[in-house]
Amino acid sequence: MGRTLTYPKRSSNTVNRYKHRATYDLGAIHQIVNASPVLHVSFNPGPDDPFPTILPMIGQMGSFEYPSASLDEPLECYLHGYVSSRIMNLARSSGGEGLPICVATSQVDGLILSLTPNSHSYNYRSVVLHGYANLVTDEEEKLWAMKMITNSVVTDRWDNSRVPPDKAEMSSTVILKVKIVDGSGKIRDGGVSDERKDYADEAITGRIWTGVVPVWQTFGTPVPSGDGKLGEVPEHITSYIEKKNKQNRALAESAVKVSLPAEEQH
Q1: C-alpha–C-alpha distance, residues 142 and 87, integer Å
Q2: What does the alpha-carbon distance between residue 117 and residue 98 come to, in Å, rounded to a whole number?
Q3: Cα(107)–Cα(35) distance, rounded to whole angstroms?
Q4: 167 SS3 class
């Protein structure tokens, strides 16, 4: 039986509320991050600014040193950005281990509609990671990370576009490599959970509908645009859309953990 690798519990990442929903497993946490189209990255902009800065960025968990490493193994978080952005300048000038940052993301899988507003909730998956960010200076590693992040948008998109990037594109693009020191995830799944005083009251249960509305991201029909002359949508795009739509729906519906009516099982 294989071991499960976990992030260490520290004061910064230990879940205190609804502890039964917490996970520190590398595999579960990395999967949520890599399934997220947007990561929210926060950092301290400097001593003269009292407010933390939070940026939406794209990124992926991976290992350049061990590219075949699976999601349940130690990985770094690679973030894609512009050369002169504030976070890149801070990382460039940071000393020691690098720029301390926090990476967070969340996905909603369902609306929990209960008898009382106080019991309403979401089915969700969320992650918070803490680590130190440094600029990737090795060109081979930079190209590897750029390809990984591009293919996270649409599978095989890197090889179906003009590559490699030219000198100007490589100069304007910066990749941050975040060495993760701790992390945690939180997952809520299942159905409605009401107060005993409410579900025993027929005057209430007889007039209020309760249940779960599954929520999932849906990719639509591609619309031609730009200077590309290829008329038919390539298979790498159509197959990705079909696969992701099925996966996203199945995940949202499985999170409910109750049987759907027969007419909805399609």
Answers
A1: 17
A2: 44
A3: 9
A4: helix
The domain covering 19-260 belongs, at the CATH homologous superfamily level, to Electron Transport, Fmn-binding Protein; Chain A (2.30.110.10)
Domain boundaries, the chain: 19-260
In sequence order, which ranges of 179-234 are alpha helices (DSSP H)? 196-199, 202-205
Question: What pTM does this model have?
Answer: 0.91
pLDDT of residue 130: 98
Gap between the Cα atoms of 12 and 38, Å rounded: 22
- Return the exposure string of 103-114: e unless at least 16 CB atoms fall within 10 Å of the residue's CB, then b: bbbbbbbbebbb
The pair of three-digit structure tokens given for residue 28, joined into one six-digit string:
């579960």
Closest by CA position to 125, among listed 35, 37, 246, 56: 35
CA-wise closest residue to 208 among 113, 130, 86, 133:
113
Site of tokens 């249940």: 211
Tokens found for residue 105: 């993301």
Contact (Cβ atoms closer than 8 angstroms) between residue 30 and residue 148: no
Average pLDDT over residues 164-174: 96
Here the contacts of 46-55 (C-beta below 8 Å, separation 24 or greater) are 46/90, 53/86, 53/87, 55/85, 55/87
Rounded distance between C-alpha atoms, residue 122 and residue 118, angstroms: 12
Q: Which residues of 236-262 are buried (b: 16+ CB within 10 A; e: fewer)?
A: ebeebbeebeeebeebbbebbeeeeee
Give pLDDT tens digits for 179-195: 999 999 999 999 998 88
* Predicted local distance difference test score (pLDDT) of residue 260: 47
